[in-house]
From TrEMBL:
<protein>
    <submittedName>
        <fullName>Acyclic terpene utilization AtuA family protein</fullName>
    </submittedName>
</protein>
<dbReference type="Pfam" id="PF07287">
    <property type="entry name" value="AtuA"/>
</dbReference>
<feature type="domain" description="Acyclic terpene utilisation N-terminal">
    <location>
        <begin position="70"/>
        <end position="408"/>
    </location>
</feature>
<dbReference type="InterPro" id="IPR010839">
    <property type="entry name" value="AtuA_N"/>
</dbReference>
Amino acid sequence: MRTDTTTFDGPVRIFVPTGSLGAGAREEEIREAIARGAHAIATDAGSTDSGAAYLALGISKNNRGSVKRDLSLLMKAAAEARIPLIVGSSGQAGGDANVDWTKEIAIEVAAELNLTPRIAVLYCEQDKASLKTQNAAGKIRALPPLGDLDDATIDACDHIVAVMGAEPYIEALKAGADIILGGRTTDTAVLASYALMKGAPAGASWHAAKVAECGAQCTVNPTAAAGVLICIDKEGFEVQTLVPANHCDPHSVSAHMLYENSNPFLLTEPGGVLDVTDADYESIDERRVRVTGSVWRPQPYTLKLEGAGRGRYQTLMLIGIQDPNILARVDEFHDKMLAALYERTHKTIGPAAGDFHISLRMYGWNAVSGDKPPRGTAAPREIGVLFVATADTQEMATQIAKACNPYFFHFPIDLAKELPSHGFAFSPADIERGPVYEFKLNHVVEVDDPMKLVRTQWVDLRQERK
């Protein structure tokens, strides 16, 4: 991304109303941002944080009402101020179905508010045949820890997106979009696009976008607000809060470079790397921090590929345990029960079970980390034991759970003693979870044109309502 700053008048003010569309934009912050002269409203709407299912299934993690509420507030404010509204990673995962879901809500809101925006819809879902061709041409390479991509892995994905940079948004803005609803995009590209389109310095634009990508998370008290205002000029940028109860300081602003980023000084984006090694952070007042010294280093243009698909099937069971004898020897209990459950499955189902897997997750002990606590760790008051059977079919996963049910319910830590009864959470005890959804790609594709893998559709409500 190269920008010509010689014609940049600046400053450019971008209002970031929330870390994710649907999380809850605040009306008082919207009014304050518009009053302070915001030139655009930009927000991310998705993430991979919640797993692969949302891309594989083409659904949103957020409920429709919360997204519609935020869109209603932001579309109304943008229309009244005559500034663009820019949304990226629409519908959580940014696949075509996710984008279309968001588009339908936006059209509904426009009708209710009697608005006639010109909407640019950016799609970035990829055709499998095209990806296979590019892979064969050596245009796709793996990111650690994965190896070379093969056709079977591409075919195993239900949906694949190419994570867009800023260029598709810039083109849509130049073409007169009032609203942009983008597919999967880097958070920073969504926020930086308007400033880059205006010719603002790339280093300051990308850094400001990185700081503001999660809204008020870059502030000292992120629960006191939802959004922030970034202001980019020829020398750097400022970030400020929009409510008196909150403020920014150099630590809260600089620390956000570590959010979802392994290097606190370098951030890789499509077409370049943001380098903040020599950035300087200075408090202007309680609510504003100024940043200078950010540098953008161009590099060959690549787009990250995210592909998700379904895997094997799982059935769950859950029990609660308060037995003091078991709680004093949790690790031993886990190992003995797991061995007994595998033996039970082999004896009752045999080879028909296939390449199955059973796990026991001891909530209240080590379910999150999986690590055995240090010797001498105090016994918990109670634990919840989650049984997870994974098999090639849902029917087999459930049959394994049913076979294990008596042992899971009654297993003692000392086999010579009377059988206990643990507390099942539900009846029937086995819960069919369905398929396991997985990210199957961790690769980048080289492109000579940032628009090559993007399709733009226009919805012009001005024309449709004439």
